[in-house]
TrEMBL record:
Location in the cell: Chromosome
GO CC annotation, single: chromosome
Domain of life: Eukaryota
PANTHER family, alphabetized: TRANSCRIPTION ELONGATION FACTOR SPT6
Protein name: Transcription elongation factor spt6
Predominant localisation class: nucleus
This protein's record includes keyword Protein biosynthesis: yes
Record Pfam families: SH2_2
A biological process from GO: nucleosome organization
GO MF annotations in UniProt: histone binding; nucleosome binding; translation elongation factor activity
Keywords, sorted A to Z: Chromosome, Elongation factor, Protein biosynthesis
Xref: Gene3D superfamilies: SH2 domain
Domain Spt6 SH2: 1-94
Amino acid sequence: MAKKVDDMMNHEKFQEGSKADAEGWLTTYTIANPRRSAYAFCIDRKHPGYFHLCFKAGENAQLNSWAVKVIPQGYELQRNPYPDMMALCNGFKLLFANLQARAKARGGGGGYK
C-alpha cells in the first residue's frame, strides 16, 4: 500500500499542502480557464490512508471533494475499486460525467451541487 501512496503523491494532479491549498489552486485555475473543469488530489490529514479528490467544474461551479481510500489492490472512490492512478482518474471522470448527465436529465442544468 505504501507504493500506492507514493504513486498518488508523485502523480501530476497531486497538490502539496492542505485541502484549502488544493482548493485555492482549483479556484485560481478555473478563474484563468473559466470553461474548463479541474481536479486535484491532496492528503486527508484527518484520516490516515485517505486522500481528497477536490474538483471544480468551471469558474462558477461549487468546489467539491470526494474521499479516495488507499486499499491493498489500489484505490477506492465512491465504493468503486481502481488498480492504479490512470484507472482512478478515468473512473472519476466517468463518475462525474454520469452525475452531470443525471442532473441534466432531471432538469438540474448539469451542475454538481
